[in-house]
Amino acid sequence: MTILQEHAPNPAADDEGRPIGYGRLQRKEDPRFVRGRGHYVDDITLPGMLHGAILRSPVAHARLVSIDTTAALAHPGVVAVITGADLLGLGLAWAPTLSADVQAVLVTDKVRFQGQEVAFVVAEDRYAARDALELIEVDYDVLPPVVDARKALDADAPVVRDEMEGRTDNHIFDWEAGNKAETDAVFAAADVVVSQEIVYPRSHPAPMETCGAVADFDAVTGKLTLYETSQAPHAHRTLFAMVAGIPEHKIRIVSPDIGGGFGNKVGIYPGYILAVVGSIVTGKPVKWMEDRSENLMSTSFARDYIMQGEIAATKDGRILAVRTKVLADHGAFNATAQPTKYPAGFFHIFTGSYDLQAAHCSVTGVYTNKAPGGVAYACSFRVTEAVYLVERLVDILAAKLEMDPAELRLKNLIKPEQFPYPNKTGWEYDSGDYERALRLSMKMAGYDDLRREQQAKRDRGELMGIGISFFTETVGAGPRKHMDIVGLGMNDGAELRVHPTGKAVVRISVQSQGQGHETTFAQIVAEEIGIPPEDIDVVHGDTDQTPFGLGTYGSRSTPVSGAAVALVARKVREKARFIAAAMLETRPEDLEWEKGRWFVKGDPSVGKTIAEIAMGAYGTVALPEGIDGNLDAEVTYDPPNLTFPFGAYICVVDVDPGTGHVTVRRFVAVDDCGTRINPMIIEGQVHGGLTDGVGMALMQFIEFDESGNNLGGSFMDYLIPTAMEVPDWETGYTVTPSPHHPIGAKGIGESATVGSPPAIVNAVVDALAPFGITHMDMPCTPARVWAAIQGRPRPPI
Amino acid sequence: MQITMTVNGTDVTNEVEPRVLLVHYIRDVLRLTGTHWGCDTSNCGTCVVLMDGQPVKSCTVLAAMADGHAITTVEGLATGGTLDPVQQGFMEEHGLQCGFCTPGMMLTARALLDVNPHPDDTEIRRAISGQICRCTGYATIVRSVHWAADHPAGMTEADAAGGDPAALDDSAGTTTEPGAAAAEAARAIPASQTEPEEVTA
């Protein structure tokens, strides 16, 4: 059909700050969830369905000598036992990762991390499958592992990936951004330079629902239906076509309700592939659901960056430059989900929210005998690490200069008139009013009063800390000329159909894991074409029913898919104008839009509502040339730039000097995600991210012993905040719309996870300032804080 | 072995292996999939159901141990198509996002309100402290339970008409206490009281 106007004016722009699409609406998802009628992968039961279970390696590094599956196969209820040797025969023993590497589906030659997949049992029920795992005899020849990334490049380090021809070390990549010579020159001339090694430890997203799949291969039609815990069903379909050799039109990926993702469900895990193989081999549907330890030990971890950071400034507190060298632990297979050109993701946003003269980073990725991944946990594109680095460095600088950390930040923030702001590593920040956000957070917190309270407490020997962070994210990946994942441009499609009676369905390529897309995407359409949100059905999570797109992660749903939805609605609105003109026997240019109807300029009483126009489109109205008899449209959105949400966070902690226990007493979060859609959902996402931050800063930590044993493999060891560890959040907001996004929205999903850890650690370090402490590595557990107070070496946990 | 119990007011009898966990019995045998599991090791609380009115983690109770007892799952919270005030509260105050921990959280809240109709924040937080939510940050769950405590009869017509329309309309502001504030309350959609559409695989 004819291409109509694509970029209509933004109706929200002339009413700054107004949430769009009816604002705070209850979620359409909730009626089913509160009745226990959500529909998650493990709720699926298909006729004749079998159950799979994975045998995992107990050791981190070992040659596989032999596997004996005889007893397991003889166990009652067992239908099949699949080993790496079987997969070699099928050409499926290795699968491509999202980062131009390969990953073993089942071990064929050697084990490379504890928890790696060794064999797959398919049985009639989940108990029988688990029983049979115990009956598989595996002989391992244990090898010394590489556990510490700092030793991975030593000349005598064991080589993790010796199956790769010619490989003699554990080096994966070197990558850099910014100008090194310029930066070094600024550092050489600076009054003040402070340096600090800053470690962002390995953590795990740990959604409440673990990963799993139900594979249903129909041998007659050749069609594979795969129900999966996937944040990116379309990308998974294409990859399955490439991996399994099944034609793409014969693959249907369904992501039903997903019990949280946070990045954990971006990758394609061996379990998914094994469920598919199991279904092909047995001719029956096969379900595989991992348990919690499998989730924590084998699926994508997050972070694991060792950062040497330096910041240069004048003696009166003008920040001049930041530089850093990073050692990135990628585990046994490079399975990060970064855009191809960016092996360290968007780490080069480490310049933060400050007007710098120069900046440079270099990142080196290494293999170790640990679980692969590095894709995960808001923000997957390494923005979290970058923000933590710069916000810690700024606080260390403030301590050195004996300046208040708020004052130092206010002095250096990029000013509103400097936007769009080209930073020193290649980004163009789209919009911002940073000082307004920081001042609002200080007002909400009662910053000056807090400092007075702190002084009074210090005089009494009590430990109270106030921590600030100011963050700028780069989200909404991304422009296809720069960003792809395994060759797929990071764009998203949307289709909108208005039915004859004026109700509508919008089909989107992104997938909700709790974000409330069924509500907010209906709200975007409602804003644009005036159909109430309750009359708009949002379809997502099924590749047979939705247009192609790269899925939900990196806070990209609203910036990319939300833009697609706004534009497809505008396309429908423009088409409606032509049909309305035909119905009113006037010219399209003589019509004017108000929410929900086109009317004749100068005579508002004469017009047609969207519902009337829809009936006209499908009815017998004589349509103008080039206009089809429907009220549908589709678009694929290629963002011109990323969006740059920002925020100012203030955390207040109390530290017990006797035990080292940190209590987060208050947390003030001011976020600016541009134009807001549903304030209730925004607030909820911020709350969740802040809680993640408490976990990361104080509790969560996947540590390994020298043998490569994972010490965080259960919720007894990997501590997640409960309601007792977090305060009642205090949230505020400013609205600075993105100038290039159709509705001005920037995305919110990961802001709080990015912004809160530095605020909390800054508060802990501030509390410990009387002891001369200027830095602590996360998590600030009671043992570590107590040891720091006592001047003792840092305990491991 | 044969077990008999009352689940959501209905007597059920089945043959099960002695080792079968209550959560698997509820999900796989009774096909009540509203009860979820998240760890199998009693750490996450996603699988909480009520046994004789008390919250228990059903991954750490054998089905055989529930023999002769009364079990309530999320499917039993609503009565005759009317939502429990706790269910309504979770929708009103955004006490859920992905929905996975929600059934367990609501059942614990119901058990708390049965013995303490007006809990304070700390009592609510303590009650749910054995359960993990990764999405909400808990504050909205606390608000949801307060909503239920404040509305023992559930949703009324006055509630449905919308709350305070004052807040949330500026370009800078705070949302610490949104309550039922609706940015455009006059156009707000009344809460759905109807059954949701069935979602099938």
TrEMBL record, chain A:
Pfam families: Ald_Xan_dh_C, MoCoBD_1, MoCoBD_2. Signal peptide: none annotated. Residues 35-144 form the Aldehyde oxidase/xanthine dehydrogenase a/b hammerhead domain. Residues 1-23 are annotated as: Disordered. InterPro entries: Ald_Oxase/Xan_DH_a/b, Ald_Oxase/Xan_DH_a/b_sf, Ald_Oxase/xanthine_DH-like, AldOxase/xan_DH_MoCoBD1, AldOxase/xan_DH_MoCoBD2, AldOxase/xan_DH_Mopterin-bd_sf, CO_Mo_DH_lsu. Keywords: Molybdenum, Oxidoreductase. It comes from the Bacteria. PANTHER family: ALDEHYDE OXIDASE 1-RELATED (PTHR11908:SF132), XANTHINE DEHYDROGENASE (PTHR11908). This is Carbon-monoxide dehydrogenase large subunit. It comes from Cryobacterium glucosi.
From TrEMBL, chain B:
The keyword Iron applies. InterPro entries: 2Fe-2S-bd, 2Fe-2S-bd_dom_sf, 2Fe-2S_ferredoxin-like_sf, 2Fe-2S_ferredoxin-type, Beta-grasp_dom_sf, Diverse_Oxidoreductases. The keyword Endoplasmic reticulum does not apply. Residues 1-77 form the 2Fe-2S ferredoxin-type domain. Residues 156-201 are annotated as: Disordered. Residues 158-191 have a biased composition (Low complexity). This is (2Fe-2S)-binding protein. It comes from Cryobacterium glucosi.
